[in-house]
Amino acid sequence: MVIRDACPACGSNRDKKNGHTRHGKQNHQCKACERQFGATAEDRLISDERRIMVEHLLRERISLRGICRAVGVSLTWLLHCMVERFAACPADLHVRVPHRPTDVVLRRLEAEADERWSFVKKKANKQWSWRAMDATTRQIIALHVGDRSRDSAKALWANIPAVYREQATFHTDQYDAYTGVSPAERHKAITKHARKTNHIERFNHTLRQRVSRLVRETLSFSKKLAHHIGAIKYFICHYNLTRATAAALPV
């Protein structure tokens, strides 16, 4: 419990009583900056350990209120923390791309692309997450969230690193939106029996198992599109870092 003898905003000790809060506690108002505050307050300093725990739980299939109950933080604080972590995700998704010509020569680049629907606020507002994956390293090399039109396929292609657009062979399903987006000689539209998109299809299930917002029958669905995209991007960034670390370990 913290006893306040000064305004928490400006530090002035000139205040007056200003009614009661909705919890029945005496409310005060600073005469200098007009900030309202209570005479007592709970010490709710969030430790670094709890912050790290929250960052881990944001990547698991658990609701925001479940995180609040497990870690002991307020929903308001968690929402601010979540937005900060989502905004800190880099645009490159932590992808390790081959940057030398010899890398491309030694390893033929192959990529897989697929899309999967989810919704924001209501099921009528469908949002399709388009993803491209390196078939060898299993890293997600590009992400786009939008509708299921050719424009979204083009937006995904624009987000793919240049070395993949120039060198890689892309395997997709036979959905028409992919046709003409990538060079025809390097685009392979195949059936599921060809087993050339099994890695990206498996990652679709990983996303649904780890990101609660993507579960079709859920109460944890996103209310804002920015949070929906941020949650997917936040998980993918960590997923790519995990894949890169695993690839760097000696065999």
Please provide a brief summary of the model:
The protein is α+β, with helices and mostly antiparallel strands.
Q: If you compute it from the alpha carbons, what radius of gyration comes out, rounded to the nearest whole angstrom?
A: 24 Å
Predict the CATH topology of the largest domain.
Nucleotidyltransferase, domain 5
Q: Give, in order, the helices and strands.
A: EEEEEHHHHEEEHHEEHH
Helix segment tally: 8
Q: What's the number of structural domains?
A: 3
In terms of DSSP E residues, the strand content is 15-25%
Low-confidence stretches: none
State the separation between the terminal residues, measured CA to CA. Answer: 54 Å
The CATH homologous superfamily of the largest domain is named Ribonuclease H-like superfamily/Ribonuclease H
Number of strands: 10
Largest β-sheet summary = 5 strands, mixed
Structural class: alpha+beta
Give the strand order, joined by hyphens, for the main sheet.
Answer: 8-7-6-9-10
CATH class of the largest domain: Alpha Beta
From the 3D coordinates, which CATH architecture of the largest domain would you assign?
2-Layer Sandwich
Helix content: 25-40%
